Amino acid sequence: MNNGDLHKRVLKSGLVAMTLLAGAAVVAVAASGNSGGIDTTGWNDPHKPFQIYGNTYYVGTDQLSSILITSEFGHVLIDGGLPESAARIKASIEALGFKLTDVKAILNSHTHPDHAGGIAELQKGSGADVYALRPANEVLISGKAAADDPQAATKGSGIPKVSRVWVAQDDQQIGIGSIRMRAIATPGHTPGGTTWTWDACEGSKCLKAVYADSLSPVSSGKYRFSDHPEVVQGFEKSYKRLEALPCELLLTPHPSQSQMFERLDKGATNTEAVKDADGCRKYVATAREALAQRLQTEKQGR
Ligand SMILES: [Zn+2]
């Protein structure tokens, strides 16, 4: 399908809006059974790009994060938003004085269309290679959601196909110039969900940055997490991995999942102001609670 079709399909269905967004507020809407009333066009509203800290910049849209990490010898981009976000992300990179063609690696949190939909276009514009854990690599190449994705039944869950996808291993480091990106498998929200960590550096002062993948237990169709103990175990493993990570600068696929704009868009980059050693643990605590509630709801519905 072309990008326009996907967009129309995404806009058409309130269910898609409900299930693809992973923010806590939206999970609450889903739990109440109200799938309407979400203005999905807001996902792609522009947001002024800004320096988060040191070599790490926000180049995403108003509700979909995209993170640029720069070095003298090439940049890394994490997440590409929706298919129609790609043009905005390119414009944001350029507004900061960087070039899309200097992006040498594109990484992804998870393969839902609101985070991976723009990657194909951004890859075309940059010539970058894409790195992904299994089985996310297969989704990026085929453009089709994994059968065991809790949201596989969502209409319009596919993405424009990505080429040159290299398989990264759990805990592997990927180097671009002086940047070292580490892949951490955090399954649950999707089977191939990946958290990325790196050192965000302002001169010699560095913060342990973590782009923590969505951990929300959201599904579509008749899917029940209680029927999939391996997915619940995946969530548990992901929580433990994230809690154990050195985590001083937490970033998330939806800015609202961790109040990124409120915390980080201060017009200046200040180590003490942006540093929060508890960020990942707080993020996990919210996710644990959401899964417990979800399993409880499923039990009551039995
Ligand atoms: Zn998602």
Notable traits:
alpha/beta; 7-stranded mixed beta sheet; 5-stranded mixed beta sheet; 11 helices; 19% strand; globular; binds zinc ion
Q: What are the secondary-structure elements, in order, as H or E?
A: HHHEEEEHEHHEHEEEEEHEHHH
**Number of separate domains:** 1
Strand order of the largest sheet: 1-2-3-4-5-6-7
CATH domain topology: Metallo-beta-lactamase, Chain A
The CATH superfamily label reads Ribonuclease Z/Hydroxyacylglutathione hydrolase-like
Parts with pLDDT < 50 across at least 5 consecutive residues: 1-39
Share of helix, binned: 25-40%
Alpha-beta classification: alpha/beta
Ligand roster: zinc ion
For the secondary structure, the number of strands is 12
Which helices and strands appear, and what pairs or packs with what?
Elements: H1 3-12, H2 14-20, H3 24-32, E1 50-53, E2 56-58, E3 67-69, E4 75-78, H4 86-95, E5 103-107, H5 113-116, H6 119-126, E6 129-132, H7 136-142, E7 165-167, E8 173-176, E9 179-185, E10 194-202, E11 205-211, H8 229-244, E12 249-251, H9 260-264, H10 271-274, H11 279-300
Parallel strand pairs: 4-5, 5-6, 6-7, 11-12
Antiparallel strand pairs: 1-2, 2-3, 3-4, 8-9, 9-10, 10-11
Helix pairs in contact: 4-6, 8-11
